Amino acid sequence: MPRFSRPLIVAALTSLGLLSGFIPELSRQSLSLDFSRAVYAQQAVTEAEVTNYARAVLAMEPLRQVAYNEIKKIVNGNIPDIQCHRSETINQLPSQEARKIANTYCNQALALVNNYLTPSRFNQITRLAEKDGNLRQRIQDALQRQQESSQR
After folding, report:
1. Which residue blocks in 19-132 are alpha helix, DSSP H?
2. N or C: which end of the chain has fewer CB within 10 A?
3. Is the pTM of this model over 0.85?
4. Each residue's pLDDT tens digit, 112-142
5. Of residues 123, 74, 125, the one with CA closest to residue 100
6. Alpha-carbon gap, residue 17 to 31, rounded angstroms
7. What distances in angstroms separate CA 67 from CA 52, 60, 81, 90, 125, one per listed residue?
């Protein structure tokens, strides 16, 4: 596995473990999407869903990194956690420019997820992966496969 893909996989898996249940978040460790607080019954996650989940995570990651770095410059490196479903976390940013960047990221992240899974299914898989090591491993394997196929 190429060296540069490991940090991305680690970041994606770290985000799964750090999620508080609300997404998208924009923070150093977190990439997530949650547009409701609904509790889901555990459902089997198909291989197609795991692949689509990995594709969504990989599609969002560059956007998250750009938004994070732009906001970091504006706020001099001290970025609070931003949860897209909670406007007060965006409104706490110190400038209109930073708020605009966060809102743009949130809208883009939602649009990307909709290309692969419904936001509710994405969130459900995220929550299931937090508790299921086998599912986490399946996601990690799918992330690695997606990265390897994109490098060909």
Report:
1. 47-74, 87-91, 96-116, 119-131
2. C
3. no
4. 999 999 998 998 998 899 999 999 999 999 9
5. 74
6. 10
7. 23, 11, 13, 13, 24
